[in-house]
Amino acid sequence: MKREVVNSRVLVPSNRLGSEMNDTSAGNNSVQYGVLVRNAIKTYGVGSRRTTILEKLNMSVKKGSIYGLLGASGCGKTTLLSCLVGRRSLNSGDIQVLGHEPGTPESGIPGKQVGYMPQELALYGHFTLRETLIYFGRIYNLEKAFVESQVEFLSKLLDLPMGDRYVQTLSGGQQRRVSFAVALFHEPELLILDEPTVGVDPLLRHSIWNHLIRQSVDHGRTVIVTTHYIEEARQANTIGMMRSGRLLTEDSPDDLLRDYNLPSLENVFLKLCMNDEGKSQIEQRSEPLANAVMGYTATRAQQHPIGHDNMAYDRSASQSDVSEIGIDCQYNKNGNRSLNNNSVNTQFNSATSNSPTRPNCKEVNNSPIIHKAASKRSRNVFRIRLPSYHRLSALILRNYLLIFRNLGILVFLYFLPALQATIFNLTLGHEPRGLKMGIVNDELNSSQDRVCNYTKNCSYSMLSCRYLTFLKDNIIQIPFETVPEAMEAGKRNDVWGVIHFGHNFTKEFEIRQNSGDSASFENIIGSQISVNMDSTNQQIDIFIEKWLLEGFGDFFKDLMISCGHEPDAGNIPLVFMDPVYGQKDTSYTEFMAPGLIISIIYFMAVSLTAGAFVSERKQGLLDRSLVAGVQMIEILVGYLVNQFSVMVGQIALVFIIMILAFGVPCHGNLALGVFITFLQGLVGMCFGLLIATVCENEISALCLSMASFLPFVITSGICWPIEGMPFYLRTISYSMPMTYPIESLRCIFSKGWGVNEFDVYAGIVISTIWIFGLIILCLIVTRFRKYSS
Ligand SMILES: Nc1ncnc2c1ncn2[C@@H]1O[C@H](COP(=O)(O)OP(=O)(O)OP(=O)(O)O)[C@@H](O)[C@H]1O
């Protein structure tokens, strides 16, 4: 008996058959097709990692029927479904859903026309069951009364728990039922359900199937359902059995069982797989046939190269009739396959010729065809429609609910930046204290118990002791008797350095003072205070050196005053007057504060955005929203509104802590500083978005944002002046998103500059360029991913 794969007999209820109309989009058939797929090729990956998932797949789903899509794990079912709902694009081939190509404005898909239940739960754990349904009601802009009645109806039908239960507290099976309810909620024309009955008990599975049958019989809705429970698919009108990206057969369950004379669909599927396996092996062994096939395929491949080139082919051929694409081959009942491209005709005998062999190639003449003119591709890469009010309000409300429901997130969002700013102010930029220095004073007499007696008058006696009293008390003086002993303590890390006075320090110092220019070398050496430092810590080294020099200046001034001389007589003739901007001894905290403010806000925005979008995509929530007709721009705007208020709080807290609590001075326009910080938050959001579009999961997103942290911080001049970088690196540094804005904030804070100064407006310009650049990059990556994954 000859099998017709495409024009299969579908058990359409009698009351539906009458309503089927002639449909030109289905070619010469008198039935209407809900879904038609022709010659679908879909690959994942690029270059050497490219794998073909759908291989010239054809599928015909009659309107108002239930279509059970069966196949082993990984054969491409989900991929096919995601193409049907417009979430992925084919590399070549055609799809028509409800008469149009998915993704086109006239198709309504993504949108209200389709109800999609992805394999993942795709539910918000912090929503109650009722809130979940109401949220999707808002997305679809459904009437309140309808929403209420659906909530009640579906709760009863699917035996859902109480509406005020949080989704995250439901059992796995209950969550799947809620997910199913979401797909049914708006009563769509087409239901696409990816394994809806996984984890559902047999009784409920039965009621789910009953409901699906009612949807198709009473309302004429088309249902495509994938399942691993092959036998439950007996209730479908048509079954498509899929293997390795191809449909092995497509027919009604009863016909399949009868034709194969097997007791179960599982047996039929196994038989088909074995036949298919046998054919593959024969194809490998059958050189002449292989050559013929290869030759044919090569000719076809030249015409239909897989991948992006092929899309170009598609477009150029878009006016042609798709009926020509079904010409690959046919199987006859005896397992013979004939190539049919009108000129080539090759035959081979199947090893399984004594068993009825099902066709896995299309019969050309009876295949419903897709008239491309009716489903014109309108793949406008950056087509953006205006956001709709109802969807936007639903998304914004959802975002706020998710934040305020989750106390941990709320605290994290608002208090982490404030905590970081506090920790920064408490820990960075302060003078070190309790630094031990070894003092070896050979002027002290051991016979007098090494007592440090000195006078405060003009007499030159025990000047070493007098000098030591002028050292800052940040330095703790530890006396040692000999230099080697003190050096040993230095090596043990007991002291930061050793200060040594010679035997005749005071006497030599006096001679040196009196000799002026004629001081001898020995005199200079004898009057010197020698210091050995542990220079492994540059900052401490610098501080101690500074304090020793300052101490000496004060000591000398004191001596000069007591002798009635000019106090500054001993100063070197290089004097630092009042600074042009800022004060003398500006603290390191002041230098770092602008960089810190910006980096806190920037990196919070990066990690929050990347985390939010990756986890939303990972959980299938993004797909579900997009299939429901939500536009990416609406998701972005919704997120932006939400993130805006979060950022306002974060920035306010950080500025209050920096300026009010820790007294970081701001001499300029504070509002301008806040504005630049806010822009940097937006740059961070866009960068987070880019990370989310590039990364598959939370871990890789986290790694990428962490990997970007240090290079950005280092090259942005937060902790070290950019002037200290090699010249070629400076150019890179200035093109980084944070460098100019940090410099702008520094100028506003410390110099009081306004937006008319280059250094200030450069920060605004650079931030704006980065925002637009990153958004464009996101769009490009998203478009690329749609085709490559
Ligand atoms: N984004 C992707 N990038 C690369 N390969 C992918 C991607 N998504 C799926 N695949 C691969 O494509 C193949 C088909 O996957 P798909 O999810 O469509 O299978 P499936 O038939 O739905 O399987 P299951 O029944 O287990 O859900 C698998 O080998 C899978 O590893």
TrEMBL record:
<feature type="transmembrane region" description="Helical">
    <location>
        <begin position="395"/>
        <end position="416"/>
    </location>
</feature>
<protein>
    <recommendedName>
        <fullName>ABC protein, subfamily ABCH</fullName>
    </recommendedName>
</protein>
<dbReference type="InterPro" id="IPR047817">
    <property type="entry name" value="ABC2_TM_bact-type"/>
</dbReference>
<dbReference type="InterPro" id="IPR003593">
    <property type="entry name" value="AAA+_ATPase"/>
</dbReference>
<feature type="transmembrane region" description="Helical">
    <location>
        <begin position="670"/>
        <end position="692"/>
    </location>
</feature>
<feature type="domain" description="ABC transporter">
    <location>
        <begin position="35"/>
        <end position="269"/>
    </location>
</feature>
<dbReference type="InterPro" id="IPR013525">
    <property type="entry name" value="ABC2_TM"/>
</dbReference>
<keyword id="KW-1133">Transmembrane helix</keyword>
<dbReference type="GO" id="GO:0016020">
    <property type="term" value="C:membrane"/>
</dbReference>
<feature type="domain" description="ABC transmembrane type-2">
    <location>
        <begin position="558"/>
        <end position="787"/>
    </location>
</feature>
<feature type="transmembrane region" description="Helical">
    <location>
        <begin position="760"/>
        <end position="781"/>
    </location>
</feature>
<dbReference type="Pfam" id="PF00005">
    <property type="entry name" value="ABC_tran"/>
</dbReference>
<keyword id="KW-0472">Membrane</keyword>
<keyword id="KW-0067">ATP-binding</keyword>
<feature type="transmembrane region" description="Helical">
    <location>
        <begin position="591"/>
        <end position="614"/>
    </location>
</feature>
<dbReference type="InterPro" id="IPR017871">
    <property type="entry name" value="ABC_transporter-like_CS"/>
</dbReference>
<dbReference type="GO" id="GO:0016887">
    <property type="term" value="F:ATP hydrolysis activity"/>
</dbReference>
<keyword id="KW-0812">Transmembrane</keyword>
<dbReference type="GO" id="GO:0140359">
    <property type="term" value="F:ABC-type transporter activity"/>
</dbReference>
<feature type="transmembrane region" description="Helical">
    <location>
        <begin position="699"/>
        <end position="723"/>
    </location>
</feature>
<dbReference type="InterPro" id="IPR027417">
    <property type="entry name" value="P-loop_NTPase"/>
</dbReference>
<dbReference type="Pfam" id="PF12698">
    <property type="entry name" value="ABC2_membrane_3"/>
</dbReference>
<feature type="transmembrane region" description="Helical">
    <location>
        <begin position="635"/>
        <end position="664"/>
    </location>
</feature>
<dbReference type="GO" id="GO:0005524">
    <property type="term" value="F:ATP binding"/>
</dbReference>
<dbReference type="InterPro" id="IPR003439">
    <property type="entry name" value="ABC_transporter-like_ATP-bd"/>
</dbReference>
<keyword id="KW-0547">Nucleotide-binding</keyword>
